[in-house]
Each structure stands twice: as structure tokens, then as C-alpha cells.
């Protein structure tokens, strides 16, 4: 287990509310999304919203939010004997309500702290995607979106794909309910989120230029695409390129994640990812399909061109963070066909590219 994971685990195990929590006052909640979907404590009853926020729990939540550049805009309180973790809104205030004993028991059952962390990330996903304030109640699609969010975030925190799935494997129901999908669908959603993060921010790292990473899929998509190989367009050995800094991120307060405008299923829309990168363009069956533009978190254009089945395809232009760009033909997300790689200093490589690499017929021009 990593030092980072152990630190978060210690914080979760120390989740105790400052002040007297034994006197719990039932309060009507406007809406509650609970992790397991199982019956127990009434979903309309939570602890008093006046309970002081737990400093340890706040640190855990802040560590979850840090990799995606967001600030906490909700209160965290403990509610014992609920055997669950909830996201809710009461009197206009956002809350995450947890049972510390439940969180500890799931960590012990799975023998890893990532289970408790993923549960917290799932509930945070409900808030960030507006599930608790849209007035539509509990829905299976909301749970899949929150599961996908948790998979994305856990990748950014350093969890493996298996570690990201451990909570759903332990707590997911084999059968779907009116509010929660069956376990296989939830596992698939977590997998999609993790793979999207891996495609955008590969764990393997690179030594030269940034990869033409595979396109992330919107949460509304029913099927996930495997990430494309990480490839970089190398410059000839005589000209050593400088290493490129990682994608910038924007710190936001009340952020919106997911489909923020239009139709992200079959039409034109704008979809914002947890990293604050976004896509604006055409969708088909939840996939990027047609003409569209991808943006970095700071609003600068990342790619502009055509997409097929969620991948960059046909003609397009990819803009690197260091000022380089590739103009030409794409297939399965990477340069394949005629094109030109323009370096920021004015040099360019022109010719045929295969699987992201220049072929022998490419010419370097100064």
C-alpha cells in the first residue's frame, strides 16, 4: 500500500465528529443518494445539519478533490448506525453524511483503504454532477455517473483498476433496483472512469513529447473504449525537444461536471470532465461522433476536428501544451496518414505517419 493511501486510510479511520453526536436529531433531507442502495435507515432521515464538520473527514475529501483541481463546497458530518454513506442537500446546504463504523468495516472486509476512499469519491461525484439538486430523485444513471467519477478520481490518486473496483465488488447488489444498477453495470462504470483517466494521464509517463491520448468517454456512454497506446511524435535525434509540462488545471468552487449544455447523447452538446477539460461538438449514442473540439482545463484548444466512436478520426489538428501541433489524418485517436508535425520553433516534419510515428518518407523542414 502506498504512503499516500496509508495517510488517507488513517484519516478515514479517525473520522469522529467534534462535539456531541449522540444526540442525533432527525431532519428531513431534500434528496439522498446512498452508496449501497440497500434499505436500512430511512433515506429521508439524517443527523442534524448543525453538527460541526469533521476536520479529519474534510482532509480526506480535500485529498480526493486535489488531483482534479476542485475545492470542497459541502459539509461533512458523521451519522452513526446508518451503515452507509450519503450525499444530500438540506436547506440549500450540501452534505456528505457517513457512518464511521461502516467505513471502517468495509476497509477491513476488503483489506484495503481504497474501498472507503472510493465510496467517498462516489458521493462527491453526486454533488459535483448536480445529482442532489436537479429535483429528479434517485436514478440508476446517476449512480453510474458517480461510479464513473470515482474510477476517474481514484486513478488520479494512484489506485489501480482493481483497487478502484473493490468497494462495488463488495457492496454492489447483483440485481438492479429502482435507484441502483446491478453490480456488473456499476463495475463497468468504474472501469470506464479509470480508463478515461489513464487515457488522458497515463501512469507510464513519457520521456519526450506528450501523447495523443485516447479520447475520454462521456458518462452517458453505454460502452467504454480501451485506451490507445501512448505514442509520441519524436523529433530527429539531432534536434532535442524540451520536456512538456503537464496539462494545467483550473481551481473551481461550485463546479459542474458532466453534460453542461445541449444533447450529449444524440446531438450537439458540451461535456465537462472531472479534470475540467471539456468537449464541445457532436454526439451519437453518447460517444463523440462528428465534428467537435476538445479543450484543456484552462480553456485553450486541445484538438479540433473529426471524431468517430469517441476517438479522433479523419482530419484534425492536435495542439500540444508547449506550442507544437499536428495537422493531418487520424485513425483510432492517433496520427495515421498524411500530415505535418509543427514544432513551436518553426521546424516541421511532413509526410506519412503510422501509429503516431513518422515513416521513412517524412521530411524535416527548417
UniProtKB/TrEMBL annotation:
Instruction: Respond yes or no to whether keyword Repeat is given for this record.
Output: yes
SUPFAM superfamilies in alphabetical order:
Histone H3 K4-specific methyltransferase SET7/9 N-terminal domain
Signal sequence segment: 1-23
User: What's in the keyword line of the UniProt record?
Assistant: Repeat, Signal
Return the InterPro entries for the record.
MORN
Q: Which PANTHER family match?
A: RADIAL SPOKE HEAD 1 HOMOLOG
> Can you say what this protein is called?
MORN repeat protein
| Organism field | Spirosoma oryzae
What are the top taxonomic ranks of the organism?
A: Bacteria, Pseudomonadati, Bacteroidota, Cytophagia, Cytophagales
Amino acid at each position: 500500500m502506498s504512503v499516500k493511501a496509508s495517510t488517507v486510510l488513517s484519516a478515514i479511520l479517525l473520522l469522529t465528529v467534534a462535539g456531541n453526536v449522540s444526540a442525533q436529531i432527525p431532519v428531513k433531507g431534500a434528496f439522498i443518494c446512498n452508496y449501497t442502495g440497500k434499505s436500512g435507515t430511512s433515506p429521508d432521515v439524517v443527523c442534524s445539519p448543525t453538527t460541526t464538520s469533521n476536520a479529519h473527514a474534510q482532509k480526506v475529501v480535500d485529498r480526493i478533490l486535489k488531483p482534479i483541481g476542485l475545492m470542497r463546497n459541502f459539509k461533512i458530518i458523521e451519522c452513526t448506525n446508518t451503515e452507509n454513506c450519503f450525499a444530500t442537500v438540506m436547506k440549500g446546504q450540501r452534505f456528505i453524511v457517513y457512518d464511521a463504523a461502516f467505513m471502517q468495516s468495509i476497509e477491513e472486509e476488503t483489506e484495503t483503504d481504497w474501498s472507503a476512499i472510493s465510496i467517498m469519491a462516489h458521493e462527491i461525484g453526486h454533488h459535483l454532477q448536480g445529482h442532489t439538486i436537479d429535483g429528479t430523485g434517485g436514478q440508476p444513471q446517476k449512480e453510474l455517473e458517480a461510479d464513473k467519477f470515482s474510477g476517474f478520481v481514484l486513478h488520479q490518486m494512484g489506485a489501480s483498476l482493481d483497487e478502484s473496483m473493490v468497494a462495488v465488488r463488495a457492496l454492489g447488489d447483483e440485481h438492479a433496483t429502482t435507484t441502483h444498477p446491478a453490480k456488473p453495470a456499476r463495475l463497468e462504470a468504474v472501469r470506464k472512469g479509470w480508463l478515461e483517466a489513464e487515457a488522458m494521464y497515463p501512469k507510464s509517463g513519457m520521456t519526450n513529447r506528450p501523447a495523443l491520448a485516447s479520447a475520454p468517454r462521456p458518462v452517458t456512454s453505454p460502452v467504454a473504449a480501451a485506451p490507445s497506446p501512448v505514442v509520441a511524435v519524436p523529433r530527429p535525434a539531432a534536434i532535442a525537444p524540451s520536456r512538456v509540462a503537464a496539462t494545467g488545471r483550473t481551481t473551481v468552487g461550485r463546479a459542474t461536471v458532466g453534460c453542461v449544455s445541449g444533447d450529449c447523447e444524440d446531438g450537439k452538446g458540451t461535456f465537462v470532465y472531472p479534470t475540467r477539460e471539456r468537449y464541445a461538438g457532436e454526439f451519437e449514442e453518447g460517444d463523440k461522433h462528428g465534428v467537435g473540439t476538445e479543450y484543456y482545463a484552462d480553456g485553450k484548444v486541445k484538438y479540433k476536428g473529426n471524431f468517430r466512436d469517441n476517438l479522433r478520426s479523419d482530419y484534425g489538428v492536435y495542439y500540444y501544451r508547449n506550442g507544437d501541433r499536428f495537422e493531418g489524418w487520424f485513425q483510432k485517436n492517433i496520427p495515421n496518414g498524411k500530415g505535418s508535425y509543427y514544432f513551436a520553433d518553426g521546424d516541421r516534419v511532413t509526410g506519412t505517419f503510422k501509429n503516431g510515428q513518422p515513416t521513412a518518407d517524412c521530411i524535416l523542414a527548417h
